[in-house]
Amino acid sequence: MYQYIIKRVLLTIPTLFGAAALVFLLMRLIPGDICLVRLGGGGASFDPKALIACHAEIGVDRPMIVQFLDFIWGICRFDFGTSMWSGKPVSTEILARLPISLEIALLATSVAVSIAIPLGAISALKQNTWIDVFVRIFAIGGIATPSFWLGIVSVLLVLDITGWATGTPWMPPIDYVPIWKDPIRNLEMAILPAITVGYRYAAVSMRMTRSAMLEVMREDYIRTARAKGLINKIIINRHALKNALLPVVTLIGIEFAFLIGGLVVTEQVFNLNGVGRLFVQAVQNQDYTLTQALVMLTVAIFVFTNLVVDLLYGWLDPRIRFA
Amino acid sequence: MRAWFLATALVTGLLTNAQAQTPKQGGTLDYMIAADGGPSLDGHKETTYAVLHATAPFYSNLIRVNPENPSSTTDFICDLCTEMPTPTNGGLTYTFKIRKGVKFHDGSPLTAHDIAVSWNRIVFPPAGVSSAREASYPMVDSIEAPDDTTVVFKLKFPTLSFMPALADPWSYIYSAKVLEKDQHFYERNIMGSGPFKFAGQEIGQAMHGVRNPDYYHSGQPHLDGFNAIFAPKQQTRVDAMRADRAALEFRGMSPTARDQLVKELGDQVTVQESDWNCGNVFTPNHKRKPFDDVRVRRALFMAVDQWKGAEALRKIAIVRTVGGIVYPGSPFAATKDELSTFPGYATDMEKSRAEARRLLKEAGAEGLTVEMLNRNVDQPYIIVGTWLVDEFRKIGVTVTQNIVPTGPWLDKMRTGDFALAMEANCQMVVNPIADSGRYLPHDIYKENFAYHDDPVQVDIYNKMVRETDPAKARVLMRAYEKQILDIGAHQLPTLWFYRVVPMRSYVKGWKIGNSHYLNQNLANIWLDR
User: How many folded domains does chain B comprise?
Assistant: First the structure.
């Protein structure tokens, strides 16, 4: 098992290096640069000397190979440098946004898992009944509805309903407070995005759980278990569901990793200062250092999540562990 | 729409009422900044309002636009000085006497020395320091502080453009001692002498300030503090105002957002509106055929009905006023009669477009198909661009828009990789002579992308910039404008932007200016609740 983990961790090194080289080159293919955006973006006049000084200050006037080697050397030391846009350390910029992104990802995953697995299993067990039809409609609705649209509509609905009911429209706060400082305000801000994101996430996972359960329930070992006289609860919980969860766990892992940096539009709708929004800002501002660091972070999250999923496979299916 | 008129009428009444009311002390103002978190915190270096709206309350300036009359183009008053100086030595020397007893937020005294060091950093930045507005002060020869209460600006030549340039809201006064130790301190830290003290920030999300009890303008600020929240999406800002999560945002909203807020909130919202010292400039690249031919450029200008366009676009976009190269509210601006003689300002469009088609035929450019570079910003770039495309279609010219993000948009203009472009022209304090310098040829003004040569235009500008008699300067401005819009048909300013600021009715004391960069130190704002 340990050898398996070490092998997987070592495999991340070429993956990260390849991603680093790719993002470094791609960012520099975009015409323009951060100094132009910074000085000319407002439409006001600026001094050409300021542009030269800006290039020198952030180091983009150096040869490309020097910049690349500097970047790689920084990665080796876990030092991603300073944001070209704000002048603050990249780690500070990311750490400022990570708590809200993690919180939304965790809450949305909780919402999704707590809806998807029971409903998916019930839907499979009650195949072709009205319960199954209802769950499938609910799931297809979630897949078909973009979460940002659901976000916009939910905010408007909350505003209108509270305005109608109390005379004072209410919406979630637009500035983030950490949960340890003010838990109620924090949850007020996080709960709506968690539900809107979690719904789509739940819908996808629900479909997966249902089809996996249907498949497993037709397996020979389930028939054998029934023939042995095992009670239905044990057959479902111990033998069917556990095996059916393999693809669902993979899906949850990928979705969770995506949620950390991929909630770009949802973060904008709810004014969440998360990693997804930072990603877009960094690309728009052509902030090379910050974009590079964010890509590396995303790759690292995906690699780590996949590793966790692989380890979970081992727990769920002993054959994988021993292989 | 009727609701909006009612609310506007209400605004007028409320504003008059507010002027008569005694400001109440206390309260915290929550306002939004329509942007993601800005770059560094250094006002000398940055250009985006995202920085100014978050940091101006912490700093003082030498002089400023009168916060009680910010729409005026000529009303400048002292902030740190004690009285506005009369120039001496033939308009070459300006001596400012500085307030005594002003303190930085760390308790250290602010003297004339700090002002001279800050201004020298802006006008003559030391090595390794970038000053975004260095080019705004070609007339300044030296800045000195002979003693603790005197600052002397010496000019190379007398000019009317000096005082407006000095009222630049970005010219924060920094501590000389701090700068001596670290020229980059103010990029990451805040330490000023303004009405509010820095109380913390959440990176990319919010900036917080608390009242400075030692502020030198008696009785100000009225607020206990403020929270500035970055909220880039307009719908979020509208929703936040409806739910009173924030009272306003200062940059301005679209007419549709205004109408929605007025409809939803009724008398709980007031609206202030003003012409805006910002606009788009339609620019043909003179180095590209067939736009090297003045007849083709004139034909394109002549296709545009600005007067009718203004009526239609004002309903959906943040544009409103037809103007020439000078901000329409300025005494230097052209009148309607003066403008209507230029291509692009005709009132008889049938005649104008017939002449445009004739010119195209004469130049062999009939049925022209071309691409126009534009920026991926809806309000108003894309809307104005779409309108222009339709205007050009009326003379048989097919234009498609190449809409790109800010970086590539600037890059393509700077490298000359375009045929037609929508440029931006956003200025701050209305300074007609300095502002119109952006129309000078690229060799002189590097951020003009028409890539034209015009020695006559340059000659007129050089005379105008040294003219100290406003009436004579205005005559020169007309000649300069004619050279740009008519004789050379170099560039066409499109409709000037229009600033619409809806706010919760309990916000009092703030007055809209002709630039979103002005009147942002919040000292005069109070809350009536």
Answer: 2
Cβ under 8 Å to B: A residues 193-252: none
B467 and B519 in a single domain? The answer is no
pLDDT one-digit tens code per residue, B244-294 = 999 999 999 999 999 999 999 999 999 999 999 999 999 999 999 999 999
Nearest to B303 by CA among B346, B335, B363: B346
First and final CA of chain A: distance in angstroms? 10
Q: Which residue has the higher pLDDT, A29 or B387?
A: B387
- Categorize the per-residue pLDDT at B6 as very low, low, confident or very high, splitting at 50, 70 and 90: very low
Tell whether B280 is covered by a domain: yes
Closest chain A C-alpha to B99 CA, distance in angstroms: 31
Q: Is the pLDDT of residue B9 over 70?
A: no
- B219 and B285 assigned to the same domain: no
Backbone angles phi, psi at B486, to 5 degrees: -115, -65
Q: Is the same domain home to B308 and B168?
A: no
Best mutation target, A271, A275, A279, A283, to test chain B (most B CBs within 10 A)? A271
B202 — contact with chain A (CB < 8 Å)?
yes
The CATH number of the domain holding residue B196 is 3.40.190.10
B320: confidence class by pLDDT, cuts 50, 70, 90: very high
CB contact under 8 A, A45 and B236: no
Q: Say which range, A58-62, B24-28, B465-469, has the weakest mean pLDDT.
A: A58-62
Same-domain check for residues B220 and B281: no
Which residue on chain A is closest to B429 by alpha carbon? A44
Q: Is there a domain that residue B390 lies in? A: yes
pLDDT of residue A45: 65
Helix or strand (DSSP H, E) at B423: strand B420-426
- Tell whether A98 is within 8 A of chain B (Cβ): no
Set of chain A residues whose Cβ sits within 8 Å of the Cβ of B245: 171, 173-174
Q: How confident is the model at residue B8 (pLDDT cuts 50, 70, 90)?
A: very low
CATH number of domain containing B443? 3.10.105.10
For residues A201 and A109, the answer to whether their CB atoms sit within 8 Å is yes
Q: Are residues B424 and B485 in the same domain?
A: yes
The interface residues of chain B toward chain A in range 11-70, judged by CB-CB distance below 8 A, are: 32, 36-40, 45-49
Q: Report CB contact under 8 Å: B135, A46.
A: yes
* Distance separating alpha carbons of residues B216 and B228, to the nearest angstrom: 23
Separation in Å, CA of A190 to nearest CA in chain B: 15
Three-state secondary structure call for residue B27: coil
Claim to verify: residue B204 and residue B338 sit in the same structural domain: no
Assign A323 a pLDDT band (cuts: 50, 70, 90).
low
**Complex ipTM value:** 0.83
Let me know if residue B21 belongs to a domain.
no
CB contact under 8 A, A32 and B227: no
Distance CA A317, CA A320 (A): 6
Distance of CA B341 to the CA centre of its chain: 27
Nearest chain A residue (CA) to B34: A271
Q: Which domain holds residue B467?
A: 276-498
Q: Are A282 and A82 in contact (CB under 8 A)?
A: no
Question: A115 is written with which tokens?
Answer: 């809806």
Do B192 and B103 sit in the same domain of this protein?
Answer: yes
B13 within some domain: no
Domain identity same for B317 and B410: yes
Element (H, E) at B508: strand B507-508
